[in-house]
# Entry
Amino acid sequence: MSDRTEAPVPEDAEATPDGDDNGRRFFEDITGINVDWRSAAIVPLLAVLTALVVGAFIVILSDTELLKKFGSEPLAALGDSWSLIAEAYSALARGAFGSVDAWSETLVSATPLIFTGLAVAIGFRAGLFNIGGQGQLIAGGMGALIIGFSFNLPSILHIPLALIAGILAGAIWGGMSGLLKARSGAHEVITTIMLNFIALFLMRWALKTEFIRVEGRQDPISKTIETSAYLPRLFGFLDNTQLRVHLGFVLALLAAWFIYWLLFKTTIGYEFRATGYNPDAARYGGMNVTRVYVLVMAVAGGAAGMGGAVEIQGLHHSVVDGFQGTLGFDAIALALLGRSHPVGVVLASLLFGALVSGGRTMQAQTDVPIDLILVVQALVIMFIAAPALIRAIFRVRTGKEVEQLTRGWS
Amino acid sequence: MVIVTTTADRPGVDQPEEVVRTPAELRRARVLGIVYIVMALGVLWFFAKGTTGDATFGLTRPQDRFSDFPDLTVPAAGSAYLVAVVLAFVGTVQLIRGFGKWTNAVLAVVLTLVLFSFLAWAAAGKSISMVGMMRGAISLGVPIALGALSGVLCERVAVINIAIEGMLLGGAFTGALVGSLFNSWLGLVAATLTGVLLAWILAVFAIRYRVDQIIVGVVINIFVLGLTGFLAFRLTERNPELNSASVFGPIGIPLLKDIPFIGPVFFDQNLFVYAMYIFTVALTFGLFRTKWGLRSRAVGEHPKAADTLGVNVYRMRYLNVMLGGALAGFGGAFFTLGAVGRFDDNMTAGRGFIALAAMIFGRWHPVGAVSGALLFGFADSMRIRLALVRPIPSEFLAMAPYIATIIVVAGLVGRARPPAADGQPYIKE
# Structure
């Protein structure tokens, strides 16, 4: 985030930053104005590349036949490894960008990620670690579902009503963690993890009740929402059923813009960031930190909840256990990758959307399962969270070194 | 200002009847009293009203030595009425004068009574194998307990271990893989080493690179989930012989296993259960009675002070985190080598997070953590057993551990205080 390319600083300068640098960093954190986009982009890009390279090694090392071949004819095996990786990664690229359909799928996968990524990013900005995207997404999905099948209204009313239900449900679910933190000091990491499980079990229970479950079925599948609550497909007029990208993607971009506006252009957002930078100073400066915690988690939960609503209204149209995937956890990677900035989150989500959509094609066309994408994601977060690693590998200058995003338990 | 303390100023000495002191304690006592009375009403409404028949709890298995030991049979409605009366009485006492230092003990008794009346209601007119339920509780609780002990070890030296889940899953995978390739003992070793390796990664990033510990933990979890899923697909899907390890069966301890009820529950289990007993005792002794334990706790509470006194903070942290990893990896092997012999994708299903909860529940104490884990194991076991007896939405029972954890961290059962330096990297000057 801070600009280190102009003034060379000694290697250990991070531990004791000089006053100037500190001031600039504070300025950047508070205003959100990033002086140097190039240095903000180089680490994420290198991280993704490195992760893909490591992923390639994992693919080769897990191929027992190939490993045997390395013993007998190493050169041929080397060639085989190359073609194996080329095949897998070209399938990945094809699935992500190879056709109009692939682009559409990338956007479809990116849509919920933008919402949950924003939910984590807002938390980070205020010094809160929101692992609860998963539960908030489920709450939002259920909220939208219930409004979606209970009423039959004109679309112009039904769509926003269901979306609002999703946002509210998510906001309540997230706000609970904020309230618990504000009132009793319970750490949000613990409460959000626990609320994730509670939301999951509540959903499983709800899917068995008569109110939610579709009639005439014994397996836990919910009723389908009314078509009036469907989010329209963006290219519905083209008469191509493969193009699944829906209005949710546009809503996600709007949400990102809203969060950007909220964080950087409003008093509330200023309070969020000031609290994140130093809660004691914020309190001393007259801000109501208690209220900030509740609000931050409610806004974050609302974002994730809207993601759930959009998934139901735009894509699935009904709820089954598993619709939530690991969206809430992937979001952590996105927020880190996007430097907790809404624009960064959108870009990171597009990248991960491409990885997921490409990963599906890779799994379908080659022997490489989509779990590889999880490994790549984990490696990406690791490289981003520990810039020292990237610096050691590539000998480039990176941003600030030690970024303590969360604060212990108490 | 000089404060002269006489015995008259100290309510605890002068007025021994007045056990409740600070406003927070007072509020808590009042809340608890109301909760007990509400529970009494709940027991009356849900478990006593309209319940008929006797509930039978089986206390022996056919193969036990004293299998003619009688079953426990109680009238379902009668015991619910009795429990309700006791709860109402306890609640009134709690409201009027409180129980002072016995508050938590009373809470435990109250919860046990409510549980008992719930079980009696669920088993009214039927029979539940209590011995089976308790055996299940122990074996379902073991991996959680080992994970929770791992958490205690790490957090006592101020390294937050969110990665318990990943360590359990990693241990489960390598346990099954190596166990199938060679034998189960080697599988056990491999699982333990996997835990150590993952803990080493956690330690290097948390201690050396000072990366945010919670983020490293989350990363390890995602990484292990992805890698084990990936490898399970690549290796074991095509070579099923790589995923069929032999399972460690129960070993009865002579004499002890013949004690009615206690024997089959505690002393006729597999080696993971006995290891859990040993580790619990060893860690409790180690942490609170040895030089190592004193140093560990010092590093967790006030690393700078410990450093000043010549304790190598980094070495203590590395050591304990890797020991913790060994425990969690070993515990993970339970899923495969101690239970089913084969690895399935994401088979730990969040047990690592329950372990984290159990650790907090047990207030960073080995005995507390293991008790919490066994309690969660019991909730799980009860859920499975009761599903056969009565149509109860099992999701609510499954949810109970998580709700309990939130209640604990929210301070309703007294303040749970983590080690003071927990989660903070230490920078030596």
Notes: The CA atoms of residues 29 and 186 of chain A lie 26 Å apart. Chain A touches chain B through 58 residues (CB under 8 Å). Chain A has a mean pLDDT of 83. Residues 155-184 of chain A form the longest helix (30 residues).
